[in-house]
Amino acid sequence: MDPAAARTVLAVGAIPVGSYGAGPIESFSSRGPTTDGRLKPETCGPDGLTTFTYGLRGAYGTSFAAPTVAGAAALVIDENGSLTVDGVKSALYAKAADMGAVGPDNTYGTGRTLLPLAATAPPPDTTPPAAPTGLAATAGDAAVSLAWTRSVSTDVASQRVYRRVSGGTYALVATLSATATAHASAGLTNGTPYFFVVRAVDGAGNESAASNEASATPRAPTSQTSTSLRVSSIAVSVVKEGPNFVARATVKVVDSLGRPVPGATVSGRFNADSAGGSLLGSGSAVTDSQGQAVVNGPRFRYQRGRLVHFTVTGVTKSGMTYDASGSAETTDFGTAR
Hints:
The chain contains 2 helices and 19 strands. By secondary structure, it is mainly β. The mean pLDDT is about 90.
């Protein structure tokens, strides 16, 4: 009586593991057909494997090839638990590599059993997104309002706002959506300068470098008047648009009491590499209700990594005087990206 010849049994031939890719089949491995003309074996598996029982010396015979194919069948079932017995067999036959005569034969059956390799997991993302730019801070009563241009990276999942006081270290004060471009930091102490940066965070948790630092000093409302204008901050960005670069300077204008001044005309020039470098162009803009003016420079051809400096050459408003010496800064630079 030969159990492997039964109709419902999947008979497995043995091929030495050292020559599994080319054969030949073990000399002792039975060949078909059955006495009634059916194909046997149906497939082949490796022998000469190391096992828990026999250790590293190897275990030979169809007694070891058959359990190996049974393990492959278990993996097929794990991948698709709805398969029937015939479905599992068909899956094994479909993945087998033909050997010997072309097509199923009575030496190798459908060939040597193979399973496709599992997909390799992609390497972890360790690249941080680009930093937000153009951060500007506006003081209010016990509060500071922030505005910025979000990161140009497409994989940003959130943004983090950090705050510190003079001489202190930055601490996280807010986590915002990927598309946020403004934030109000409340509950602050009037008369205390506060400093802010914004960072972008991607889906893998990588945090960008900090944006430019912006600062403001909250103050209580006052009825005092001021006739003096000064610049409280400048932020310069240089972005590529088509074949050219465009420089923009965001200038914040306040009065001597630190209050935003709307309707003031800010004029300035853009220079290459340094404040005294070759002139790229000049421009002017009027401050909005938050005292902020965006001065657009000319389009120009440039190299990535080079610096563009913007220098305020004047701030005018009827009835008020520009105090350059009292300004926090009158020039700043950005890097072509």
